[in-house]
Structures are given as structure tokens and as C-alpha cells.
Design goal:
There is one protein chain. The protein has 10 helices and 10 strands. It is α/β, with parallel strands linked by helices and about 260 residues long. The strands form 4 sheets. It has a 3-stranded parallel beta sheet. The longest helix has 17 residues. Bound molecules: glutamic acid.
């Protein structure tokens, strides 16, 4: 059994992260599983090395430990390109040139050959989307299911959208990087926040299309602040570093990081 804690270094860790880390590390201790730390830093405009270092420092100070070396996704961008090339080679992806405001007005759809050639020759930037229609054809009726919070979930492909699997700006996406790495690192159990629960059917779809194993999923609840909002780096929740400076001990912080 193997699991992982996979934060994105876009800011300093706060209590919500500690709670998430605790959920994963406690799961691994209870089941005698290995727990990896993975840094999900594909978005180099938002991720910073000092935040990665702070993750190591804060988690270490709190008493968590993990095997070395830690996988940094930014060092494996070519792996994600290979996975995208496989999906593209199966005819499952299409180029999407639409801007955010155009997408608000109309759903994305593949362009005609002529339109596509014209946009490509004009050098317009594009995202790659996963065509659910093409996926359906490729799966030819195969039922997709997975375990989430100990229950079997059946995927209804008709409810899924053509998600972006390669962003215009970074050429890959969270969906590709996370599923690729869970495969590459032999992750058997994915423990993560319920904010990602709706993404799981897409991950299982990608794993199936790529013939990668489907891990067992567990989504935990998130700590809410007083206003009922999810705690996040953007809402300026107190960082662990600042709590440490104020004299809080790891025990205080771990005791507060409960669901
Ligand atoms: N990197 C993601 C995040 O920071 C978590 C990925 C996952 O656990 O699947 O929200």
C-alpha cells in the first residue's frame, strides 16, 4: 500500500494543509503503508522554490517524515508530454483556441479541418481538450467505476465535460500530471480533500485510456473558517510559519488541525 501528500507550492502552508497532511500520513501509519511527499509545481508562474522549501521545513517541524528523493513535477514535464502524445495519437484530444469569454458564450468543440489549419498557421495559442465523445467511442461501452470513500462509484460519461488536459500557458495540466505520477509512483490509495472529488471521474477516465491502474480514492472534508469558507492561501489564513513564530508548538497546531 502506498499513498502520497501532494501539495502545490503556491503559498505557505496553513492549517487546512496540515489537516490534509495529517489525513494522509495518519492513514499510512494506521495501515502500515508508505507515504510519499510530492510537489505539484507544474504551474511555474504560481509556484515558487521558497514555498517548496517552506513545505519541507513546516512538515518536518510538525514531525512528518517521507522518503527521499521527493518528486518535483516541474522536473518531469516531458513525461506529461509523452502521456499527452499517447492520448493525442488515439484521437482523443482536440485543439481549443477559445478565450475565457468565448467559452462563457459557447461550449468548446473540435474545429473543422480547414478552420484548424487556418488557426494553426496563424500561430494562435491553443489548449488541448479531452473529447468525451471520442473517449466514449474508444471505450465502446466499457463501464468505468472506482472506489471513493469505500463506495463503488459508476462514471456516467454523459455527465463529463471536455476538460483541458494541456493548458495554453504550461502545455500540460493538473489532471495529466497527477494521474501520471500516481501511476509512476505506484500509488495505491489517494487520500485528498473533497474539493477534488468531482475531478476523480476524469482521473479514472484518463487512467483507463492510458491503461494505468486506478487507485482507491478517499476524499476528506475540509476545515472551514468562521464564515464557512474553505481555508485557503488566498484567503490569507494564518501560515504555519507565522503560527510557529507566535510560539505555537507542533502539538498545538496538530491538535487544531482536525476536521
Ligand atoms: N496538488 C493538489 C493540490 O494542491 C492535490 C493533488 C491531489 O491530491 O490529487 O490541491
Amino acid at each position: 500500500m502506498k499513498t502520497r501528500f501532494a501539495p502545490s507550492p503556491t503559498g505557505y502552508l496553513h492549517l487546512g494543509h496540515v489537516m490534509a497532511a495529517k489525513a494522509v500520513f495518519d492513514f499510512s501509519v494506521d495501515r502500515n503503508a508508505q507515504c510519499l511527499l510530492r510537489i505539484e509545481d507544474i504551474d511555474q508562474t504560481r509556484c515558487r522554490p521558497e514555498f517548496t522549501q517552506a513545505i519541507f521545513d513546516d512538515l518536518g517541524w510538525l514531525g512528518f517524515s517521507w522518503p527521499q528523493p521527493v518528486r518535483l513535477q516541474s522536473e518531469h514535464m516531458s513525461d506529461y508530454q509523452s502521456a499527452l502524445a499517447t492520448l493525442r495519437g488515439q484521437g482523443l484530444l482536440y485543439e481549443c483556441f477559445k478565450t475565457r469569454s468565448e467559452l462563457a458564450a459557447a461550449c468548446p468543440a473540435p474545429l473543422s479541418k480547414a478552420e484548424l489549419a487556418q488557426r494553426l498557421s496563424a500561430g494562435k495559442p491553443y489548449a488541448l481538450r479531452l473529447s468525451i465523445k471520442a473517449c466514449k467511442a474508444s471505450l465502446s461501452g466499457k463501464a468505468l467505476s472506482y472506489i471513493d470513500n469505500e463506495q463503488e462509484k459508476i462514471i456516467n460519461l454523459d455527465k463529463l465535460e471536455d476538460i483541458v488536459v494541456a493548458r495554453k500557458d504550461i502545455g500540460t495540466s493538473y489532471h495529466i500530471a497527477v494521474t501520471h505520477d500516481d501511476m509512476a509512483q505506484n500509488i495505491t490509495h489517494v487520500i485528498r480533500g473533497e474539493d477534488l472529488q468531482d475531478q476523480t471521474p476524469y482521473h479514472v477516465l484518463i487512467q483507463t485510456l492510458m491503461s494505468w491502474p486506478v487507485p482507491i480514492y478517499h476524499h476528506h472534508t475540509l476545515i472551514m473558517d468562521k464564515e464557512g469558507q474553505k481555508l485557503s492561501k488566498r484567503s490569507f489564513s494564518a501560515s504555519i510559519a507565522s503560527m510557529r513564530e507566535l510560539g505555537h508548538t507542533p502539538q498545538d497546531i496538530l491538535a487544531r488541525a482536525v476536521i
